Amino acid sequence: MMELLQTPVDQRPQWAALAEHRARLDGVSLRRLFAENPGRASEFTLGVDGLLLDYSKNLIDAEVMGALVDLAYATGVHRRIEAMFEGERINTTEDRAAAHVALRAARDQRMVIDGENVVPRVHHVLDEMGAFATRIRSGAWLGYTGKAIKNVVNIGIGGSDLGPVMAAEALSAYSDPGLNVRFVSNVDGSDIVSALRGLDQSETLYVVVSKTFTTVETLTNARTARRLLVDALGNEDAVRRHFVAVSTNAKQVRHFGIETENMFGFWDWVGGRYSVESAVGLSLMIAIGPENFASMTDGFRAMDTHFREAPLAHNMPVLLALIGLWYNNFHDAQTHAILPYSTYLARFPAYLQQLDMESNGKSVDTEGRLVRVRTGPVVWGEPGTNGQHAFYQLLHQGTHLVPCDFIGFLRPVDGPDEHHDLLMANFFAQTEALAFGRSEEEVAAAGVRADLVPHRSFAGDRPTNTLLAGRLNPFVLGQLVALYEHKVFTQGVLWGINSFDQWGVELGKVLAHRIFDELSQDEPPAPGHDESTNSLVSMYRTAAARRVRPRPGGDRDGAAVR
Ligand SMILES: O=P(O)(O)OC[C@H]1O[C@H](O)[C@H](O)[C@@H](O)[C@@H]1O
């Protein structure tokens, strides 16, 4: 039987209905929507296991939400959710499952992928990680010279870095203060130099994380770390006590020189950017301990269960996805800001950048056709209140519509109460100001000089979601990450794209490989690029030939660009 092609989303009647709603609501302000519906905030608020989403300050009404939910059903979001949990090969271009939800399954749950219940394997690795983390934390694991480990250095990039680094920072208040956990990702040699500054190699454990174990940045950093370790400790045998690997590729791990007894595995059905809950989170587990890690897993699982079971109209990830689509496709918004009111979540926007932009930065649908609607937005953000003193001007008075997610907590992790009151006062004030603005009449009535009135008015109608939880802890972090994972997946389904491949990162890698030879070989291949690239390569080679190494704390290398 011939398979029917999936209807492009913009050809669906539900899309046309949304366009009509967009026209109907044109010029209708949030002030009016709130005035007309005194129960609006409670109508558009949803709580899931202590995490609250207030989406009332969006340019929506009940009809819009109804039409968006209709679109979700029409595009089969409910069926795709089930397919993900059933371990189907939903990553069609790579012909594999995308079953990160299995990483969070309880010990007695079943998740079948390619005919095998993978939950026992998942828990086997989690148990191994737990035992290893406990040995490191208790001082039972000794380095080559007999000293306990005090420093853990995670070497990885992309999904093998951003998740652990984000979560380790988010949960740093839950970390063992006696352990120094650092992260090296960039191939820029300054990254490893600065990460290792002040560390004693005899007390340092390297966790080399790479799904493929072929990523050039990670292998380069790992080789450099190994050389430094062996130089410091004087024997290759030291590697066994100071290096562990996290990978799906045992062959390459062995090839690098790490025994598989020091390897923690995961599987090809875990995408890199969806992997923090797998062995990729080993450094994090060492930092916060297995119990806190398990509590984070519980948070993930709570959101997974909600995502699978709640009807789409009351499903938090689906609602975020639909509201995002509403701005992306019907309000011409090109970006989406993530604004956590927590210093500990400083890396959360960067983490979500990979999650969202690598997943949904696609222009071809699952059928191989060019998509005709805009897909994933540019995701960016910084913690509040810092951002308020930097870029919020544009959010309030600029010409771009920037939908924002404000993320905050009722109680502080630490610090004096006064700080938290001020922090959250700013959070609530910002979402209020963005939504309702300050009209010219109000500004004039406040006695502002007539010529300044336009400058000092705020149009309002700048949409925000408010995500509020009790306190930032491992459980809540798990909920938040799973929430965004599922939001991104849902949007991929709505747009008809595959959120689980990332072919777009390949071309640059291939070209870099070739240019590396041109930069570094004594007799390089003839440069065969465009005029611009050829001349940049040649300028670099000239500078490299004259390169002077900077002395520590002394001269800089001034030869490169003068
Ligand atoms: O874990 P690895 O195999 O080293 O991959 C690290 C990262 O590099 C790639 O280029 C991909 O774009 C990312 O999705 C991935 O997370």
From TrEMBL:
This is Glucose-6-phosphate isomerase. Its EC number is 5.3.1.9. It catalyses: alpha-D-glucose 6-phosphate = beta-D-fructose 6-phosphate. Its main location: cytoplasm. NCBIfam families: PRK00179.1. Keywords: Cytoplasm, Gluconeogenesis, Glycolysis, Isomerase. CDD domains: SIS_PGI_1, SIS_PGI_2. Residues 552-562 have a biased composition (Basic and acidic residues). InterPro entries: G6P_Isomerase, G6P_Isomerase_C, Phosphoglucose_isomerase_CS, SIS_dom_sf, SIS_PGI_1, SIS_PGI_2. Coiled coil: none annotated. One of its GO terms (molecular function) is glucose-6-phosphate isomerase activity. It comes from Rhodococcus pseudokoreensis. Catalyzes the reversible isomerization of glucose-6-phosphate to fructose-6-phosphate. Pfam families: PGI (PF00342). It is an enzyme of class 5 (isomerase).
